[in-house]
Design goal:
Elements (H helix, E strand, L loop, with lengths): L28 H15 L10 E2 L7 H12 L3 E5 L9 E6 L2 E7 L5 E5 L21 H5 L7 E3 L6 E3 L8 E7 L2 E5 L7 H22 L8 E2 L4 E5 L3 H8 L5 H4 L4 H4 L6 E4 L4 E7 L1 H4 L5 E8 L3 E8 L16 E11 L2 E10 L8 H8 L6 H28 L10 E2 L5 H23 L1
Antiparallel strand pairs: 1-18, 2-9, 3-4, 4-5, 5-8, 6-7, 8-9, 10-17, 11-17, 12-13, 13-14, 14-15, 15-16, 16-17
Helix pairs in contact: 1-11, 2-11, 5-11
Bound molecules: FE2/S2 (inorganic) cluster and fe (ii) ion (FE2).
Length: 439
């Protein structure tokens, strides 16, 4: 498969504005420092010379580095959910990010807040995240319907207002299109830092604005069906796979590879975000005039896949043709070191769910023939193929005895964005060690 080397484009201005938690639990920092040095040696190459670099060894996916990766997750913007779930006052979502408990909720005026989902008294979970349904208190939020406008811990009854003054740990929250992002740091006493962080997020997402400027995404509807796929693997294996254009032909030879014009595949790096683009064939995709596929990754947790009906070929659309643009979003959520959940959200222009009477009947029996149904089914097939490869890679790193002649892997040419992603993570780890050593 011919895949173009990376195409350089102007980088958005990204502020280096990390705020480090004092004394994070990193275990033995000297040992961690040694490990990071080894990882860095393998990846100490630039984008021009990446093929001489060495991919991350099994050690990266072990317990010692995992502690530092949990800190890394708290220093970066994380995609956490969909705006469709946060429409009315007191709508909320809860989730667990590598042990970080999160509650995102709208206040009575419609302002979005993100809190640590833990009581300040004896640290009980306030509202149950899906993984621990028995350990929270969903009824506490239901009580909000009675105009109480508070969260009440059901252990000893402490009450928390939902506003900027809440004593709960308060994180920074922002949105882009259908996605909600959270930075798990309490910066409420530093409004200028909040501004900087929000600008950093929007600068990293700027390429998406360019891609979607003629798509009217505000009219898109997010499908009710949100799909959570559980993977028995490290999140970095899944993320790395996303950034790896070399696997498409082999792993997805029956699915994705059939629809893409692979010789025209391109990889672009924005640091730390990346974009893969490829034309989509008209005949295999069923999209009149074909389309352009955009796969945008904002590490560590967001991926946004856009299929934009081809605007460049001047092929007239049939009368009353429907808009065939689409977006699907992946929220990659590390639960634990070998345990990752990927939440798929599907976002379609109006008309994608329409069904005639016969197709409606078929849907009752689980056979969704709508455009959206077909799209979701094909996304799932591709995800099953990816999940299989990622879980297999996890077995590979778990069972590594470190006795190979060379414990590092190597990169193929189309893996350039995987190299960039791995190098970004190692640089994050290095920065965490430097800060930890300052004490
Ligand atoms: S733990 Fe919440 S009130 Fe005591
Ligand atoms: Fe894939």
């Amino acid at each position: 498969m011919a895949i173009d080397p990376v195409q350089r484009i102007a980088l958005p201005t990204v502020a280096q504005s990390y705020v480090f938690r004092k004394n994070p639990n990193l275990g033995n920092v000297d040992e961690l420092e040694k490990t990071v040095k080894v990882l860095k040696q393998g990846l100490y190459f630039d984008l021009e010379h990446f093929q001489s670099a060495k991919a991350l060894p099994a050690e990266f996916y072990g317990e010692q580095v995992w502690k530092a990766l949990r800190v890394m997750l708290r220093q970066n913007w994380l995609a956490v959910g969909h705006t469709k779930d946060l429409v009315k006052p007191f709508d909320y979502i809860t989730l667990n990010f590598a042990g970080g408990l999160l509650l995102v909720i709208k206040d009575e005026k419609g302002k979005l807040h993100a809190f640590k989902n833990r009581c300040t008294h004896e640290k009980k979970i306030l509202v149950a995240p899906p993984e621990y349904p028995e350990k929270g208190n969903l009824s506490a939020v239901k009580r909000l319907d009675n105009n109480k406008k508070i969260l009440k811990c059901f252990y000893h009854g402490m009450k928390f207002k939902i506003n900027d003054e809440s004593p709960l740990t308060k994180y920074v929250v922002d949105t882009w299109g259908p996605l909600v992002f959270v930075l798990m740091q309490d910066l409420r006493n530093r409004p200028e830092q909040i501004e900087l962080e929000k600008n950093r997020l929007q600068a990293m997402l700027a390429p998406l604005n360019e891609i979607t400027k003629d798509m009217d995404i505000s009219s898109f509807q997010t499908d009710d069906e949100e799909w959570n796929d559980s993977l028995k693997c490290h999140f970095a294996l899944f993320d790395g796979n996303y950034c790896d254009a070399a696997h498409i032909l082999e792993t997805h030879f029956k699915t994705l590879a059939k629809t893409l014009v692979l010789p025209e595949y391109k990889c672009q790096y924005f640091g730390p975000a990346s974009l893969q683009t490829c034309p989509v064939k008209e005949e295999t995709s069923g999209i009149p005039g074909g389309a352009m596929a955009y796969y945008f990754k904002l590490p560590p947790t967001a991926a946004i896949n856009i299929y934009k009906q081809n605007r460049d070929r001047n092929i007239p659309l049939p009368p009353r043709a429907i808009n065939m643009d689409s977006i699907d979003t992946n929220i990659v959520r590390p639960i634990d070191r070998k345990d990752t959940v990927v939440t798929f959200g599907f976002h379609f222009p109006p008309g994608w769910h329409k069904l005639g009477i016969l197709k409606k009947l078929l849907k009752l029996f689980g056979w969704d023939m709508s455009l959206s149904g077909k799209y979701k089914a094909s996304s799932k097939r591709i995800q099953y193929e990816d999940r299989d490869r990622c879980e297999n890679a996890q077995l590979g790193v778990e069972n590594d005895l470190g006795d190979d002649i060379d414990n590092f892997g190597h990169f193929l040419k189309p893996e350039i964005l995987k190299f960039a992603f791995q190098k970004w993570m190692v640089l994050e780890l290095e920065q965490i060690v430097v800060e930890a050593k300052k004490g």
